[in-house]
Amino acid sequence: MIQLSDATAAAIAERFKALGEPMRLRLLQALRTGECSVGDLARRVGGGQANVSKHLQVLQAQGYVDRRKEGTTSWYRITDPQVFTMCELVCGGLEEELDRKRKLLRRRR
Amino acid sequence: MIQLSDATAAAIAERFKALGEPMRLRLLQALRTGECSVGDLARRVGGGQANVSKHLQVLQAQGYVDRRKEGTTSWYRITDPQVFTMCELVCGGLEEELDRKRKLLRRRR
DNA sequence: TTCTTATATTACCATATAGTTGAATAGTAT
DNA sequence: ATACTATTCAACTATATGGTAATATAAGAA
């Protein structure tokens, strides 16, 4: 992390916030296998089409995905594969956190 | 990323969401040099005491920081240094994103 | 005891956002 | 032309959350 001016802190936070939503994480995972249309994604992750479209725009605004239009359909794809590195890191942290909580529970018995 | 059941997607999202807030990022950075009290942090990052306290609890709930009480003061410290790896990753993404936007602007002239 | 000091908690307000509905836009086919 | 499909946009509701103020709790000092 750098010095963190107000502007950079806000920019970094926006990038994290875009990943702080279950459906957006599912969309990213669905896109992991390759380019998908909005309709495909809505069917695969389960959700209204308009809602999926909105979430995809959030991901695009942060540069995680990119869009390509072909006729009436929009094809979205991952542009920043490092997002998965981040997910793996946060998953690792999750497991440690679960371990920590389990130990706390054991101590309290 | 794994299969992403509803529960795991929600848990991962919570972890990202905790980092999706400018003040929490500043708190983490302030803690990078070592253990700090709530009052110290409030002075260093600039913010009300109650607000800082609340944000620290969010970070603690996600296991990013831990607390140690000594008299009336609470000492917080980083428990998961990998959070900084994540920040570096997201910063890298930020720069790429800025580059991308700069190129788009250039193309439009 | 009373008076600080440090932190946490509660209640409240204002804003942000996820989700839905319906309309608008645009392409394609008949 | 109409009809159908795919997506986006706009408006709305409900909920979540950041910030603040006041209070509560707790520890130490005078």
Radius of gyration of chain A: 17 Å
Greatest interface and its participating residue counts: A-B, 46 and 46 residues
Series of secondary-structure elements of chain A, N-terminal to C-terminal? HHEHHEEH
Count of helical stretches of chain A? 5
Mean pLDDT of chain A: 91
Structural shape of chain A = globular
Strand count of chain A: 3
Which fold name is given in CATH as the topology of the domain at 6-80 in chain A? Arc Repressor Mutant, subunit A
CATH class of the domain at 6-80 in chain A: Mainly Alpha
Structural class of chain A: alpha+beta
Q: Would you identify the regions of chain A where 5 or more consecutive residues have pLDDT less than 50?
A: none
| Gross CATH architecture of the domain at 6-80 in chain A | Orthogonal Bundle
The helix content of chain A, as a percent range, equals 55-70%
Distance between the termini of chain A: 40 Å
* Assembly annotation: homodimer
